[in-house]
């Protein structure tokens, strides 16, 4: 334990060109520290990128690092690669299929798995997609906008439950939603409505409703309406962990 704390202290106190990134929760790794640090965590989300990253994708990664700062079992880290001088970390990046031709490359290292899981950015490279990627592949809870942790757990329980048990889960969801503050009250109603519709129409409702909302998002809607639709999409995806036919949609606010 003391060795682990010492290693982290060294990382966060060593001056570097990326001090701002480290301060925001993203830890910098190199060819020496990589394996030492990665194996200390249940999961590690690592971005291989240029030595001095910038742009929307980097900002999305940093945003996730900030939001997950209290998730102890998850490490958010970066490997900065130089293609000049001594070419720092170039060999490490190449080992995991990353180079200047495809930067940034994000890989998820999960304890117990021999190979990292690659992040597919075809649905968008933003903090929500990164968050969802970690959550689906590790079970580590990272909330999406509009989602409520307790209700997400009930959504999971609901989808696993037999038909004759689902009304009981719905009842628990209604009780939990009634205790929510004003900020999350509208989300509570969405969880309740989705469960009621699934009981009425079957599990297929999740997919059809997802497609309906996605179609609305692709149309002309106000920014406020778009925000509400995205929240509904996020909550629907709490039910979709068991519906492999549905793929996450690109989300941009």
From TrEMBL:
Residues 146-239 form the Endoplasmic reticulum resident protein 29 C-terminal domain. GO terms for cellular component: endoplasmic reticulum lumen. Keywords: Endoplasmic reticulum, Signal. It holds the Pfam family ERp29_N. InterPro entries: ERp29 (IPR016855), ERp29_C (IPR011679), ERp29_C_sf (IPR036356), ERp29_N (IPR012883), Thioredoxin-like_sf (IPR036249). Residues 23-145 form the ERp29 N-terminal domain. Residues 1-19 form the signal peptide. GO terms for biological process: protein secretion. SUPFAM superfamilies: ERP29 C domain-like, Thioredoxin-like. PANTHER family: ENDOPLASMIC RETICULUM PROTEIN ERP29 (PTHR12211), ENDOPLASMIC RETICULUM RESIDENT PROTEIN 29 (PTHR12211:SF0). This is Endoplasmic reticulum resident protein 29. It comes from Manduca sexta.
């Amino acid at each position: 334990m003391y060795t682990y704390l010492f290693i982290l202290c060294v990382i966060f106190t060593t001056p570097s060109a990326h001090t701002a990134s480290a301060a925001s929760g993203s830890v910098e790794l190199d060819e020496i520290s990589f394996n030492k640090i990665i194996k200390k965590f249940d999961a590690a989300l690592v971005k291989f990128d240029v030595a001095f990253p910038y742009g929307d994708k980097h900002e999305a990664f940093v945003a996730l690092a900030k939001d997950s700062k209290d998730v102890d079992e998850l490490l958010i880290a970066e490997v900065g690669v130089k293609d000049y001088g001594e070419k720092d970390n170039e060999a490490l990046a190449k080992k995991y299929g990353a180079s200047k031709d495809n930067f940034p490359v994000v890989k998820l290292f999960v304890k117990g798995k021999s190979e990292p899981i690659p992040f597919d950015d075809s649905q968008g490279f933003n903090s929500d997609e990164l968050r969802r990627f970690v959550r689906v592949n590790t079970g580590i809870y990272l909330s999406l906008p509009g989602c409520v942790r307790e209700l997400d757990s009930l959504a999971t329980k609901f989808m696993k439950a037999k038909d004759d048990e689902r009304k009981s889960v719905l009842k628990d969801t209604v009780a939990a939603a009634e205790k929510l503050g004003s900020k999350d009250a509208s989300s509570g109603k969405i969880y309740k409505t989705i469960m009621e519709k699934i009981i009425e129409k079957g599990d297929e409702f999740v997919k059809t409703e997802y497609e309906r909302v996605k179609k609305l998002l692709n149309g002309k809607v106000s920014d406020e309406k778009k925000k509400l639709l995205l929240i509904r999409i996020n909550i629907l995806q709490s039910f979709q962990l068991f519906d492999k036919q549905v793929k996450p949609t690109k989300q941009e606010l």
